Amino acid sequence: MNQIDENWSSIEGDQSLPFAKLRVQYYSAMMQIIARIESLDQQLALSCARNPIHHIEKRIKSFHSISEKLAKQNRSVTIETIRANVLDVAGIRIVCSYVEDIYRVADMLKLQDDLQLIQIKDYIETPKPSGYRSYHMTVGAAVYGIDGKQMIPVEIQMRTIAMDFWASLEHQLKYKTNAMVSSSMRERLHSVAETIWFTDVEMQSIYMDINAIR
């Protein structure tokens, strides 16, 4: 994901301050949820004798990306349209060791009743046609400021190390190189995704078998 210091420097005029305040709200919600995730990781480590989370990444979507997304929806860029239509302004990626860790972390987040569950997209159970696998959860976190309480959405993507490897390189190949991806290339990428999924399943099976004979 992009670095957190990516600023909204393209905003000018009278709207610059309201948009800057909005960005602070998304940043605050994101950091609040990261703190919870890190706490969950420590709690799970006590019961699993290991940390299920390999690492966490974070980003605030650039104002340019937000504008492009709203333009595709034929919407103007306002505070209201961003709040209502862009659920991934703040994004967290959790990279786990095993598939079961993803669902364990997701289940614990669902139990936190002060978080508002907005949507779930399980691309592990139902992969995208490209072969992409990941678990997406969007939650709303309460942010208290000078204008009162706001529920701010944060998208959480959860993947295994292997899924993250594939998704990161696939994104580079398709979007960063600006190259045309032929049908044969898509088939090869899909084949690699299936191989990686088999590897994920097999590594989890090996882990469980080793635990069984301890």
Report on this model:
There is one protein chain. The N and C termini lie far apart (38 Å). 25% of the residues are buried. The protein is flat and about 60 Å long. It has 214 residues and is of the alpha+beta class. Helix 5 (161-176) packs antiparallel against helix 6 (183-212). A 5-stranded mixed beta sheet has the order 1-2-5-4-3. It has one domain: Beta Polymerase, domain 2 (2-Layer Sandwich). It is 50% helix and 21% strand.
For the largest beta-sheet, the strand count, sense and barrel status come to: 5 strands, mixed
Q: Could you say which structural class the secondary elements and strand pairing correspond to?
A: alpha+beta
Low-confidence stretches: 1-5
Mean pLDDT value? 88
The CATH homologous superfamily name equals: Beta Polymerase, domain 2
Give the gist of this structure.
This protein is α+β, with helices and mostly antiparallel strands and about 210 residues long. It has helices at about 15-50, 65-70, 80-85, 100-110, 160-175, 185-210, and strands spanning about 55-60, 90-95, 115-120, 135-145, 150-160. It has a single domain, classed as Beta Polymerase, domain 2.
Key terms:
214 residues, alpha+beta, Beta Polymerase, domain 2, 5-stranded mixed beta sheet, 6 helices
How do the helices and strands line up, and which of them pair or pack?
Blueprint: H1 16-48, E1 53-60, H2 63-72, H3 79-85, E2 90-96, H4 99-110, E3 116-122, E4 135-145, E5 148-160, H5 161-176, H6 183-212
Parallel strand pairs: 2-5
Antiparallel strand pairs: 1-2, 3-4, 4-5
